[in-house]
Amino acid sequence: MKKCDYFKDLILTDYIDGELDKNVAGSLERHLLDCSDCRAFFKEVKNNAAMPFQQVLRQPVPAGLWDTIKQNIEHENQASGPIADLIDKLKGLIVFPRLVPVFASLILMLLAGAVTFNTIQIQQARDKAQGEYLVSTLGSTGSLALADNSGLGTPIEHYFL
Amino acid sequence: MEDIARDILIRASQGDMQAFEDVYKASSSFVYNVAFRIINNREDALEVAQEVFMIIYHKLKGFRFESSFKTWAYRITANCAMNYAKKSSRTKTVPYEDSYGEGAVVNEARTRMDQEHQSQLIEDLLAELNCDQRACVVLRNIQGLSYQEIAQALNININTVRSRLKRSREKLLSLREVSPSFLKRGLGGVHEKV
Q1: Most confident of the ranges B76-80, B84-88, B185-189
Q2: pLDDT bracket for residue B107 (50, 70, 90)
Q3: CA of A62: which chain B residue's CA is closest?
Q4: Rounded distance between C-alpha atoms, residue A85 and residue A66, angstroms
Q5: Closest by alpha carbon to B133, among A97, A70, A49, A11?
Q6: Angle between helices B158-178 and B180-192 (to 10 degrees)
Q7: Closest chain A residue to B119 measured between Cα atoms?
Q8: 3-class SS string, A50-87
Q9: How buried is residue A91: exposed, middle or buried, by Cβ count under 10 Å (0-12/13-18/19+)?
Q10: Nearest C-alpha of chain A: how many angstroms from B178?
Q11: How far apart are the C-alpha atoms of B97 and B105, rounded to whole Å?
């Protein structure tokens, strides 16, 4: 029964439309020889759901359609005038890049630039603070050293000298 | 429809009206017929066909020959017709029992071989399908497009084409169960000609 359901699905679509792989179509046709229920189903689908549409005659295109289209185009061309034509021609000559990727790249570049600038600013501020600290530290030790140097005349030095 | 020569399309895209008329002559029949079968109304199909050719005229400048003109034109036509049908909801649905009740059997039998009558039956059958299903049936069974071509024209997956066709046919078969006399008289008549 499951086999029949599988083949009935194929009959409704690929088989009736000639889209089925040859090997699968072969096994389906062998099944149709044995199964009267599937054979009846195939006949029903063919006669009532597929073939009637293939018999449909093409409707003739109503006269006057081309004239209406032509008039519409001419009317548009007159309304647009020579300036619009010139703009159209210029548009054809100049190739505009797609704007979305351009804007996206621009925004990314601006973000990257802002982050880099900020990092440099922070680094500079840190360096400055460190420099000031060192200067102040060196300033105090420097004065001590000077005091020491000026201490050539300490009692011990005097003793050795 | 035969695919139109590249030089004609290029000239038409440059505004050559003679070339555009050639494009129209080569494609107007399928544009009108596809629109008519999807919308199921002659006047509306005419309006859509006009719209389709205006779109083709304007967009031909941007046509890059990446797909065939035929596929491109089918896509525009199917889109316009489906949008129109969905917006307007003017697609008529003929109730089977009212139109083809038992009282009409004799008259139906007399005229069933009439082409206009057959065409009407097809219109009534198509009206029973939803717009998406109708587009697939029209492109497959009336226009003879392959599943791949339908998928490209409607910009859908090939399995979606398959499932829409399956549901359409199940629906058509169920109509036979609901109103056997309708299909027996209507489509049986068509079938006898095969």
Answers
A1: B76-80
A2: low
A3: B46
A4: 23
A5: A49
A6: 110
A7: A56
A8: HHHHHCCCCCCCCCCHHHHHHHHHHHHHHHHHHHHHHH
A9: exposed
A10: 14
A11: 12
User: Which ipTM value was assigned to this complex?
Assistant: 0.72
In the numeric block, which tokens belong to residue B29? 């029949």
User: DSSP string covering chain B, please?
Assistant: -PPPPHHHHHHHHTT-HHHHHHHHHHHHHHHHHHHHHHH--HHHHHHHHHHHHHHHHHHGGG--SSS-HHHHHHHHHHHHHHHHHHHH-------HHHHS-GGGHHHHHHHTT-HHHHHHHHHHHHHTS-HHHHHHHIIIIIT---HHHHHHHHT--HHHHHHHHHHHHHHHHHHHHH-HHHHHHHHHHHHHT-
- pLDDT, one tens digit per residue, over B122-138 is 888 899 999 999 999 99
Q: How far apart, in whole angstroms, are the C-alpha atoms of residue B149 and residue A81?
A: 39
- The tens digit of pLDDT for each residue in B169-186 reads 999 999 876 555 555 544
> Are residues B32 and A17, on separate chains, in Cβ contact within 8 Å?
no
What residues of B are in contact with residue A56 (Cβ under 8 Å)?
37, 118-119, 122, 142
Question: What is the distance of C-alpha B16 from the center of its chain?
Answer: 29
* Predicted TM-score (pTM) of this structure: 0.66
**Which residues of A fall within a CB distance of 8 Å from B118?**
55-56
| Residue A158 sits at the chain B interface (C-beta within 8 Å) | no
pLDDT band at A48 (very low <50, low <70, confident <90, very high): confident
Q: Which of B46, B173, B187 sits opposite A62 (nearest CB)?
A: B46
Identity at B166, one-letter amino acid code: K
